[in-house]
């Protein structure tokens, strides 16, 4: 699939589910995604006054957590291709008194309209899997980070215990698309979710790609039997 074709496919799916996206995340993960995101931000080690890029930031879950850490002198930039997702996120930030700290930009993660070495940290939550050219996206993350800046990538993976993996596959392929149709009006979007997880590189491979993009100190941390993984690195 070409970059344009995949970009349009991903955009179409997120347009379809934007209003129900956060609710579906909570239902399908049994609320675990909140714990995973909080741990991601803790491991990122943000400090007051820092500049943070929430890439593929969608409705801004990670951005709101990051904004609380960087304080009133810090700034968080949500960068996402999908206007509908960000439209859902803006009022949530405002209700938490974070509107002044969080800024929203519609754009392509593989070609960031941002200066070199301009942010202290980059966080990506369940977004790198949707990039048409993963290496290009990782290269852009490296480019915009200051020397020594931190990267945290939270992404789905495949469970490691064999029995749990079989149960997870049954749940994923049989139940998730049906719930997507029932609750979000899109079976297709949640079929894409499962397919994209299966086709995405394993954590070891993603770690090598992050290293190849020029990062150092690359580590990864499996969550909940490997359903999700946090990758950490430094520029």
UniProtKB/TrEMBL annotation:
Keywords: Menaquinone biosynthesis, Methyltransferase, S-adenosyl-L-methionine, Transferase. The keyword Transferase applies. It comes from Desulfobacca acetoxidans. S-adenosyl-L-methionine binds at residues 59, 80, 108-109. Methyltransferase required for the conversion of demethylmenaquinol (DMKH2) to menaquinol (MKH2). GO terms for molecular function: 2-methoxy-6-polyprenyl-1,4-benzoquinol methyltransferase activity; demethylmenaquinone methyltransferase activity. CDD domains: AdoMet_MTases (cd02440). It catalyses: a 2-demethylmenaquinol + S-adenosyl-L-methionine = a menaquinol + S-adenosyl-L-homocysteine + H(+). Belongs to the class I-like SAM-binding methyltransferase superfamily. MenG/UbiE family. This is Demethylmenaquinone methyltransferase. The keyword Glycosyltransferase does not apply. It comes from the Bacteria. It is an enzyme of class 2 (transferase).
């Amino acid at each position: 699939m070409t970059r344009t074709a995949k970009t349009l496919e991903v955009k179409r799916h997120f347009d379809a589910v934007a209003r129900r996206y956060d609710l579906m995340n909570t239902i399908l993960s049994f609320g675990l995604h909140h714990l995973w995101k909080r741990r991601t931000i803790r491991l990122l080690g943000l400090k007051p006054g820092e500049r943070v890029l929430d890439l593929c930031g969608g409705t801004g879950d990670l951005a709101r957590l990051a904004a609380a850490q960087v304080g009133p002198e810090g700034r968080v930039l949500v960068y996402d291709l999908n206007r509908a997702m960000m439209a859902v996120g803006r009022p949530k930030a405002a209700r938490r008194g974070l509107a002044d700290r969080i800024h929203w930009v519609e754009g392509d993660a593989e070609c960031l309209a941002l200066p070199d070495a301009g942010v202290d940290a980059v966080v990506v939550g369940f977004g790198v899997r949707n990039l048409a050219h993963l290496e290009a996206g990782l290269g852009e993350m490296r480019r915009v980070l200051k020397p020594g800046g931190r990267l945290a990538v939270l992404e789905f993976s495949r469970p490691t215990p064999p029995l749990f993996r079989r149960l997870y596959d049954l749940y994923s392929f049989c139940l998730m698309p049906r719930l997507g149709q029932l609750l979000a009006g899109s079976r297709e979007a949640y079929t894409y979710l499962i397919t994209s997880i299966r086709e995405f590189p394993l954590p070891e491979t993603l770690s090598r790609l992050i290293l190849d993009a020029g990062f150092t100190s690359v580590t990864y941390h499996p969550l909940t039997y490997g359903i999700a993984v946090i990758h950490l690195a430094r520029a």
